[in-house]
Amino acid sequence: MDEMNRLAYVADLRMFERLQTRPPAEDGWADAFPYSRGTIRLTPDELREFFEAYIALLNRYKRPDGETPPEARTVLTRLLAFPAPGDDHTEGTTE
């Protein structure tokens, strides 16, 4: 399962890169590729809560085919959230 997820992630990144270097025709989608990279400091429980909020946001925008506007397109999303390597969470502590 881990290998399948890794391969899917690599394929998604390649597709995203292709679209950025060769955007689709000028139909309003050429500049519609949001990207964000950030950091937040969370506990494992807060990370679960963050993920649940993300899923709730995705579900808020889902709609049946019959309610989808003609100009809408399927948009692929990918969320990665993981502890930073080497972050030993000792910042701000005293020995």
In short:
Helix content is 40%, strand content 0%. It has helices at 2-21, 44-61.
List the helices and strands and how they pair.
Blueprint: H1 2-21, H2 44-61
- The radius of gyration over CA amounts to 18 Å
* Quaternary state of the chains: single chain
Say how many strands there are. 0
Structural class: mainly alpha
Number of helices: 2
Question: What overall form do the CA principal axes indicate?
Answer: extended
Describe this structure as you would to a colleague.
The protein is mainly α and 95 residues long. It is built from two helices and no strands. It has helices at 2-21, 44-61. It is extended and about 45 Å long. The chain starts with a helix and ends in a 34-residue tail after the last helix.
Features:
single chain, 95 residues, mainly alpha, extended
